[in-house]
Amino acid sequence: MQLQQLLGAAHVQDSTAGSAFLSDRHHVYHGQVAAVVHPASTEEVAALVRVCVHHRAPLVVQGGNTGLMGAATPDATGNSVLVLLDRMNRIRQIDTDNDTVTVEAGCILQNLQDAAREAGRLFPLSLGAQGSCTLGGNLGTNAGGSGVLRYGNTRELTLGLEVVTADGDIWNGLRGLRKDNSGYDLRDLFIGSEGTLGIITAATLKLFPLPKARSTALLAFDSLEQAVAFLSHARAGFGAELTAFELMSAACLALLRQQFPDGPQPFAQAPQAWFALLELSDNHSAEHARQSFEWVLGKAFELNLLADALIAESLAQSAALWQLRENMSEAQAREGRNMKHDISLPISRIAEFVRETDALLQAHFPGVRNLTFGHLGDGNLHYNVAAPLGQSVETHMAHYAALSALVHRNTQALGGSISAEHGIGQRKRELLAEVKSPVELELMRRIKQALDPRGLLNPGKVLP
Fold first, then answer.
1. What does each C-alpha distance from 102 to 93, 126, 234 come to in angstroms?
2. Domains in the chain, number
3. Which of 25, 39, 280, 357 lies at a 20 to 30 A Cα distance from 163?
4. 135: pLDDT confidence band, cut at 50, 70 and 90?
5. Which residues contact 445 (CB under 8 A, 6 or more apart)?
6. pLDDT digits (tens, 9 = 90+) for 342-360
7. Which residue intervals define the domain FAD-binding PCMH-type in the entry (predicted)?
8. Could you tell me the residue range of the domain that residue 41 belongs to?
9. In this model, does residue 18 exceed pLDDT 70?
10. Closest Cα partner for 154 from 141, 164, 170?
């Protein structure tokens, strides 16, 4: 009754609210709630938090529910209030002189991209789920995507935040400043905290000039070592104009051809083992972009850094090549569930990691199929492992703990991280204790205790 008086009866749903809110994207985690609420303003969020503090009711914030770690799924106790910020979706201001946009957390990422484009600017965060994920979720997980190579993760794109604290206070840190050394950087604490330290309600983000030309190519490599060497060559040749370098194995392309037979079919008979989708964003002209492409790729052939290349000659061809990368998750879903590993490594160790880990998996789990792809330009691999041909998905997934432990051990041994862009959530919470030092874990717990002393913000997530 108190929540209905605060938000209006139409914006409060009881525990029988649709199951879409109560399960994660892949239906691995399921929860129950006391209520589902839809506040319309930062002030309403703050008042909601104060009510929940009074009743000792946990709060879980959910955006587009596209996450993969169960971070936005409530637990099974049924005590939590699930907060949906879908009514808080306004773009408050676009400042083209300062190249910033201030936007509310419930705004869908693609809508933000479109608004920036209409203002003659680029907001470069680009994800496969951009048509449904929200800015709040992007901030909560420090989302990456295909443009990190040039523009950085969500954290690097953020100048200021507006946050409702665990006490129900409002911190207005929406400063569009690129230089501000006035004390601790609270902004970076909240970004990537998965809703465990505060509720992000709005952000001031960087905008960039729209590129005058984009060039796209699908490249073929004889080995992963060759792909890594080419990437160094491309960085030197293209500089900041190199926007994306998306890796796909031959097995990934084969799966795409199988699951999307009417889609693009490049390199269908190619003998190469690895492929990469390269994109160049040029701020000069289409002619300048073409000349850069020709020079860098031509030199790569001379140096034996490249086996073959398919260059898009039109926007339609470029879109078709990007369709390959964007369909990867759906192609895997159609084939059946597999073991997903969102990891990052120093780029110089990636070929070694794949070679060693592939061999270890075959030794311990004969016949498993590696579907490796990801953002090679920033060291982020989606090292996914599918069932052997003829084996049921259920039998394969029964080995999840042992197989993933092997993958993560080798990731750690080569200086990598168990989570590159998907976060920790529920799925990797216990694993965090194995990969973080006692000092790191204690510091994280102290931060949680200081900012959320009652432990009401997204309990059971991130910290073991």
1. 5, 18, 34
2. 4
3. 25
4. very high
5. 463
6. 999 999 999 999 999 999 9
7. 29-210
8. 2-84
9. no
10. 141
- Show the CA angle centred on residue 174, arms to residues 283 and 167, nearest 5°: 145
Residue range 294-317: average pLDDT? 93
Compute how many other C-beta atoms are within 10 angstroms of the C-beta atom of residue 450.
10
8 A C-beta contact, residue 128 and residue 422: no
- 385 and 356, same structural domain? yes
Residue 75 falls within a domain, yes or no? yes
What confidence tens digit (pLDDT) does each residue in 152-166 have? 999 999 999 999 999
Query: CA 252 to CA 270: how far, in whole Å?
Result: 13
Residues 57 and 98 placed together within one structural domain of the fold = no
Under the banding of pLDDT at 50, 70 and 90, the label for residue 17 is low
Angle between helices 224-238 and 350-364 (to 10 degrees): 160
- Mean of all residue pLDDT scores within the chain: 94
Residues 204 and 226 in one domain: no
In a domain, 432, yes or no: no
Based on the fold, state whether residues 415 and 389 are members of the same structural domain: yes
Please say whether the beta carbons of 308 and 259 come within 8 A: no
Q: Which of 193-202, 326-335, 343-352 has the weakest average pLDDT? A: 326-335
Same domain, 293 and 395: no
Count other Cβ atoms within 10 Å, centred on residue 251. Answer: 16
How far are the Cα atoms of 58, 289, 419 from residue 164, in angstroms, in the given order?
14, 45, 26
User: Which of the 8 DSSP states describes residue 454?
Assistant: T
Q: Are 23 and 77 members of one domain? A: yes
CA angle 149, 330, 113 (to 5 degrees): 45
Q: Are residues 298 and 343 in the same domain?
A: no
CA 282 vs CA 32, 100, 264, 318: distances in Å:
49, 21, 25, 15
Structure tokens at 83: 């907060």
267 and 190 belong to one structural domain: no
Q: Which of 214, 11, 219 is nearest to 106 (CA)?
A: 11
**CATH code for the domain of 29:** 3.30.43.10
Query: What pTM does this model have?
Result: 0.93
The Cα 425–Cα 458 span in angstroms is: 9
Across the beta sheet with 199-206, the strand order is 91-95, 100-104, 199-206, 158-164, 170-173
pLDDT at position 21: 86
